[in-house]
Amino acid sequence: MEFVWKGYRCLYLENEILRIEILVDKGTDIVEFLYKELDIDFMWRSPIPVYPQSKMIQTAPAKLGSFIDYYPGGWQEIFPNGGSLCEYKGAIIGLHGEVALLPWEYQVIEDSKEKVSIKFYVYTYRTPFYLEKIITVKSGVPYIEIEEEVFNLAGEEVDFIWGHHPAFGQPFLSKDCIINIKSAKIKVVGGDGKSLTNLKQVEGKWPYVEGIDGKLVDISRVPDKDDNVSDVIFLSEIEEGYYEIINEKLKIGFFMEFPKEVFKYIWFWRIAKGSYNYPWWGRNYNIALEPFSSLPNLSEAIKRNDQLKLKEKGSLKIKLKAGIKKI
Which of 163, 248, 265, 298 would bridge with 81, disulfide CB 3.0–4.6 Å? Predict the structure, then answer.
């Protein structure tokens, strides 16, 4: 079903179990991932208001680009840059790239009792890419399937970072949640803004990392909403392209499957009111577990030889699966 919300074309895709809301005109963001039986939405809603793009005038240029000003929470496609603003072959690319701020087009491929499949597609404007994805919801199935392909339209080889940025919040998220990841290497870096943390900026092995008190902290346990922490954590050497977040009290969880040969990292962002000053001002309680091809940002990834690349007229396909897990 298509509808318009604050000037944005939106779509609902749903079956008997779940409903997802997609902002077609804003990056195909998934801003609702609802489990109908318990009426629980897994997605986090940002405290930054959503304004119609056609009517909002930014009061000043943003140092990192416009991503935060137009960030509603939920799940974004991140491409062709991940992380802070950078310059690539003369193009300035802002925080988290281009496609999360672009209007996409769509085409209904199938709309039957058995399944609904919709193709979304977009051209980037500062870089020479075309991206399309098919999102499918099947009857009686508690997850969505995503098939994607990126095309290099240039007459030369191009580099890029690719990722997915789902953020989770209340009422699903709580101290009763545990993150299940098989095995990974941990690296803790500074959080957003003026941040507090209970972790040292060190490396570790999932799920333990050294805390500021010298004791090991189990970061698979989600902090409580008032724990006053904020961290950005990079997981590498992941054993499998899969994670799940389980709320042990509600007996429900969210899982994602992804190709780890493409998405070699999981970026782990967690805030429990601990990020002060711009942009979060001590307001947030959320986590994000983000499959990414590279560490940030594109120019730095190229120096590390950590980026993805496509030859002239080349393409790359991936498949994702994400949905509800009952325990």
Answer: 298
As a whole number of angstroms, the longest Cα–Cα distance in the chain is 57
pTM above 0.85, yes or no: yes
Q: Give the DSSP H/E element, type plus range, for residue 304.
A: helix 298-304
**What pLDDT does 25 receive?**
97
> Residue 274 carries which side chain, given as an amino acid letter?
G
| DSSP string covering 125-141 | SSS-EEEEEEEEEETT-
**H/E segment holding residue 218:** strand 216-218
Reported as a single tens digit per residue, the pLDDT across 265-305 is: 999 999 999 999 999 999 999 999 999 999 999 999 999 99
Question: Is the CATH code 2.70.98.10 the one for domain 1-162+309-327?
Answer: yes
Residue corresponding to tokens 């899969």: 242
Cβ contact 200:166 at 8 Å:
no
Token pair for 139: 């009857």
Domain edges within the chain: 1-162+309-327, 174-292
